[in-house]
Design goal:
Elements (H helix, E strand, L loop, with lengths): L1 H22 L2 H7 L7 H14 L16 H17 L2 H16 L6 H25 L1
Helix pairs in contact: 1-4, 2-3, 2-5, 3-4
């Protein structure tokens, strides 16, 4: 049992490292969706990925077991990969240096998406309360 647990921890650490490497491209996406050479469909995907990733509040909070990490480990990395595949490589290459400089200044916050997530959770809480009250 101890050896199996060790391999699970190793696997988890490898996934976290891979996700971190993928997430380093967020700043490239941030600059690339503003680039006029980026196709509209790639801009659309990149805007959603960047807005979600830079939101100070997750749609699924991390304190919810298992599901709380789905966005960090699956949704955001796969969104980044998809957006990067849609953006021409010359646009990505041109924005890498500027992205490094932008990264040094810190991650921008997207409060619009954060507020949207708060509203979604409030609506969900009100709905749950109504369902509970209706069944009492």
């Amino acid at each position: 049992m101890g050896e199996h647990f060790f391999y699970e921890i190793q696997f988890t650490i490898k996934i976290q490292i891979l996700c971190k490497k993928i997430k380093q491209n967020l700043f490239v996406l941030y600059l690339s969706y503003k680039d006029p050479r980026t196709p509209w469909y790639a801009k659309l995907v990149a805007i959603f990925v960047v807005a979600y990733a830079f939101s100070p509040i997750d749609l699924i909070p991390d304190f919810i077991p298992v599901l709380g990490y789905v966005d960090d480990l699956i949704i955001v990395p796969f969104g980044i990969i998809l957006a990067l595949k849609l953006i021409p490589t010359y646009v990505i290459d041109d924005n890498k240096e500027s992205a490094e400089k932008l990264k040094q200044s810190g991650k921008p916050k997207n409060w619009f998406v954060g507020i949207l997530f708060i509203i979604i959770w409030i609506i969900f809480a009100v709905w749950i309360c109504k369902v509970i009250i209706h069944h009492i």
